[in-house]
Amino acid sequence: MNHLLAKSVMRRLISGGGSIRSASPAPSLTIFRVVTDSATMRRESLVYVRGGGVELMKRMMSSEAVKVTEEKKEVKEEKKKSESNVVASSYWGVARPRITKEDGTEWPWNCFMPWETYQADLSIDLGKHHVPKTFLDKVAYKTVKLLRIPTDVFFQRRYGCRAMMLETVAAVPGMVGGMLLHLRSLRKFQQSGGWIKALLEEAENERMHLMTMVELVKPKWYERFLVLTVQGVFFNAFFVLYMMSPKVAHRVVGYLEEEAIHSYTEYLKDIESGAIENVPAPAIAIDYWRLPKDAKLKDVITVIRADEAHHRDVNHFASDIHFQGKELRDAPAPLGYH
Fold first, then answer.
1. What pLDDT was estimated at residue 161?
2. What pLDDT does 68 receive?
3. How far is it, in rounded angstroms, from Cα 285 to Cα 297?
4. 259 labeled binding residue
5. For the chain, which end, N or C, has fewer CB atoms within 10 Å of the first or last residue's CB respectively?
6. Is 311 assigned to a binding site?
7. b/e burial code for range 215-234 (CB count within 10 A of at least 16 → b)
8. Do 161 and 38 share a domain, yes or no?
9. 70 annotated binding-site participant
10. According to the annotation, is 272 in a ligand binding site?
């Protein structure tokens, strides 16, 4: 019965009819929707069949009104999106200009800019080693070797986690040294010879190593706690050491970098043997080191190892300057030496 009634209603709608009365009662509620479109008008007709009668409700809506409503909605969404990208009020006039890559796409990073990126020098000699001769050199060397024992026991061949831990420590000396040289320069009204910037560059470079490793290795809660503990202890210990003897402090860092080269070499061996999957390189690493778009984990570890070799040279060089009885500002700083 409802089926026949629906067909009757459809015919009346097409012919432009008004309301219809049913000859027999309908046991349930049935809803029919009829939609007709034209160039300027949209018509929706809802037909309700209820309790023995048919009520016809016609709702007229202009297509132009629908279009305006949709446009307003789009404008509102775009405005909301643009407002979410605003960091602070434009009243202060502090805003980063639009920066693009070489291919014209927008630069995606706030932590570093295109002019801070570089291609690592892979030709550096990885096998260099400072042979400890003086008593202080031997103390520094033995200290680093002792520090490696608990690291080997805890991480074993989990080189991803080891590298993450290593970088949280490796980024500390440059910051401490740069900070203390900065304060010394202020106290004595002296130039630093560029060494403040050189050491802070080293700290920033090590931090970028960490940001890359975090993309590759997701640290667990106990590893984060370990990082917090080790960083707190190492920062204060290195701060005191640098205050007491900068030449020993730089020598310690030089030997730490030698150990880092060894660790990354072992990391590469596991990648080449298939023990560690050679996954695609993170986007942040591709942009920071100007790597090819199809770069892999092996490429990332290779450039990081080259960076560590440069840091080794810088810190052994700084220690040699102090051992010669001179100050760092007496020798030009190796700025931009990655």
1. 81
2. 54
3. 10
4. no
5. N
6. yes
7. ebbebeeebeebbeebeeeb
8. no
9. no
10. no
78 is in an annotated binding site: no
Query: Residues 160, 24: one domain?
Result: no
| 180 phi, psi to nearest 5 deg | -70, -35
Contact (Cβ atoms closer than 8 angstroms) between residue 19 and residue 30: no
**To which residue do tokens 């706690």 refer?**
225
What is the Cα–Cα distance from 166 to 260, expressed in whole angstroms? 8
Domain containing residue 146: 135-330
Residues 321 and 239 in one domain: yes
In the predicted model, residues of the chain with pLDDT beneath 70 are 1-90, 338
Domain end call among 62, 87, 110: 62
Determine if residue 258 is labeled as part of a ligand binding site: no
Residue 8: its pLDDT value, please? 58
Q: What DSSP string describes 253-306? A: HHHHHHHHHHHHHHHHHHHHHTSS--PBPPHHHHHHTT--TT-BHHHHHHHHHH
Quote the pLDDT of residue 59. 45
Q: Are 22 and 39 in contact (CB under 8 A)?
A: no
Residue 87: per-residue pLDDT: 53
User: Are both 41 and 140 inside the same structural domain?
Assistant: no
pLDDT at 95: 77
In a shared domain, residues 45 and 155:
no
